[in-house]
Amino acid sequence: MKIIELLMMFFAVGILFYMVLVIVTYGLMLFTSLLRLRKEHLLDKSEISENYINSFHSKPVSIIVPAYNEEVGIVDSVHSLLSLRYPETEIIIVNDGSTDRTQEILIEHFQMKPIQKIVRNEIKTKEIIQIYQSTIHPHCLLVEKENGGKSDALNVGINVSKYPYFCTIDGDSILDESSLLRVMQPIILSDGEVIAAGGNVRIANDMNMQLGSVFGTNLSKNYLVIMQIIEYLRAFLMGRIALSKFNLVLIISGAFSVFSKKWVVDAGGYTTGIIGEDMELVVRLHRIIREKKTKKRIEFVPEPVCWTEAPQSLTVLRRQRRRWHQGLIESLWKHKKMMFNPKYGRIGLLSVPYFLLIEGIGPLIELGGYIYITFAFFQGNIYYEIAILLLLLFVIYGVVFSILAILFEAWSLNKYPKISDVLRMVLLSFTEIFWYRPITLLWRCEGLIRFLFKKKEWGKMERVGLSKKETSA
Amino acid sequence: MIELSINVVLIIISCLLFVCLFQIIMLSIMYKKEQKELQKINIYINKTEKIWYDYLMNDGPFTARVVPKSLSDILAIERIFLSYVKNVSDPSALKKIQQFANDYLSNHYESELKSRNWARRMNALYRIIDFQLENQAPICIRTSKKMKTSKEQFQLYKVQSIFNKEELINDLMDSEQTFSEIEYKQLFSLLDSVLFNQLFERFESLQKSAQYALIDVLPTVSTVGTIEMLESLLTSEDSEIRIRALKGIESVGVIYNLDPFIPFIQSSLWEERLMVTKIMSHIPIHYTYDYLKSLLEDENWWVRSEAAKSIVVQKEGIDILERFMDESKDRYAKEMANEVLARRLNLI
User: For B212-260, how does the pLDDT look when each residue is reduced to its tens digit (9 = 90+)?
Assistant: First the structure.
């Protein structure tokens, strides 16, 4: 009996320490983010993008859209790319052997004609079947290729691209017209010191969207979607801004990011056959930066630039989260050499350990905490008190931080959102630790297990489409 | 011990929740305030939109009704003016905006420039440039010591490049502040040709990023001797300067003499070979064919591609390229020639 008690105590103290560490880390990151947001709170940001659009100096960008069975959202997505304000772009849609009508819809809608084009195979990929060019928008190309997965499609896009920077965007994402200018801003302003930049992705469910433009912002009525919005805000305020400030970003969303082609080609392009290809590439770039001893940076752009559709059902969300987590662990495992390795500077000593210990195996420890609390309430005495303490820490971590993220976000936006929407989100945050957090923890642990058993799955999200027309159809 | 910890955590949670509650209240107040402010701005815009249009675009009379009486009026005028400044190029309308802003908005921007808030100072600088507030320029320079951030400094130089061009070059030389290329380009593109020549004379004393920016802006400035200036940089030790100079010459597209470019055909840097290949598209083919033929067989893909393009744009380019495909034994060169040819024939 004594041994069990001791084990329980050891387990409880371990979780308590872990929770304190997590809370302090997130608290520091929130504080760092707030300092930046406070400084830029009243700044007229439209003026910044105006300056660049007027100048002829911006670097041309190839926009790569990998598409696999994206017949629902692809036309809207390409329209939003066509309406981007940027001096020089080309749009390369890579159809990765879709089995639906993605290709036919694109050919029909943009009047695509087959063209002859020699492609320089800087990265080894699956065969290209045919390249099409739009007769209405000559800078818009469609590449038909054998199915090889998202990474392979992106690599084909890189080979076909002609500009020094390329931008990746998911087939279902919608951009603001100034998105590319904003995300290219750190690259241009740093004279090439920044070699990759990612934009802030927002959830667009229930927003009024037509032909690739956001016409109004309404908060979704689906609780699952609202919880994901809160989660995105947390990740943004308690992670990306602070990590970016110290060049520690390991995740820039694949939904919308820009890379220097030279660096990515030198790194060998996207790795095929893994799940988190976008994160893995960023980790690899950081690794190469350190190995080459150069002063390059990877940055996160805090302004919301990309809208995406969040899963609306538990089944799809489960698949997404499982996949994300498996991808995260895979990327970190592939570069485990960097962990606590001073050769990789802050990335090796802070960033990789943070992502592994807090983001990676955190769910396992947190889930252990939930199990402990449930167990302790049946045991009473000392267990009971530790359980209360743990529960309170969960409240800080889950509830209070979420509310703070919602409120600071509402404050930092120059246009104040509807107070009723803010209150709805705040009230929902109080329920987070009782349902949303435990179920997502379970799914993330599932991802961890799948990584251990090397399970491969190409999770496909079922989309309903963001456009009004499509939603009502 | 655990009980104590529970109490401490409870206190922390209470404090944090209190902060949240306070913030919700503040947000509600700010939301209401903003709604009211927006309403006032919209009222002003609706009331004066037509008057402004007549005054600015149709030479209508100026009426005292448009003179701002409150902060919301100023914000409304800002919105109206910005929509004209960003979308209209009529000099007389822009002059009237400048005049009005100088007369009625100066005090507002003067106080904004003195604000302790960085973003408000920045916004004021943006507006001073947008509305060409000439009488704010001396104030900007006076308060410039307080504006220490790089972003503010850059806006101040921009103000100077509009209103005090003569001093800009000296100030840039004396300054320890370094800007990015794009920022230098923005500053330099506002200079006239005389000042531009003066700046070029001091090329060697400029920061590296300023040197690169100057070369890039040079072809866009209509000044006498652009080609000579660019050619003088071809002997630089910095390969980046040489490549940019070649690029500049290519974009101007006027070539008097092929000789300065011949050494670059054998350059070890493919970027230099690429640029010289592009330059050759502006020279009649009978002077350049031998060089282009060797460049078509270059080890670099981009150089081969550009060489084929430089041939095909010429008068007899299609025949020459077809002949080359029959004669050449280089598979890659032939493939490239074939693609460029096919694309050209499709266009025709």
Answer: 999 998 888 766 788 889 999 999 999 999 999 999 999 888 888 889 9
Chain B segment 5-44 residues within 8 A of A by beta carbon are 5-6, 9-10, 12-13, 16-17, 19-20, 23-24, 26-28, 30-31, 34
Structure ipTM: 0.77
pTM: 0.84
Per the CB < 8 Å rule, is B6 touching A392? yes
Model confidence pLDDT, tens digit, residues A192-233: 899 999 988 888 777 665 555 555 567 888 899 999 999 988
Place of tokens 């499509």: A470
Q: Do B180 and A42 touch (CB under 8 A)?
A: no
Nearest-Cα distance to chain B for A336, in Å, is 36
Closest by Cβ to B180, choosing from A191, A393, A423: A191
Residues of B within 8 A of A57 (CB-CB) are: 181-182, 185, 216
For an interface test with A, the pick among B9, B214, B240 (most A C-beta atoms closer than 10 Å) comes out as B9
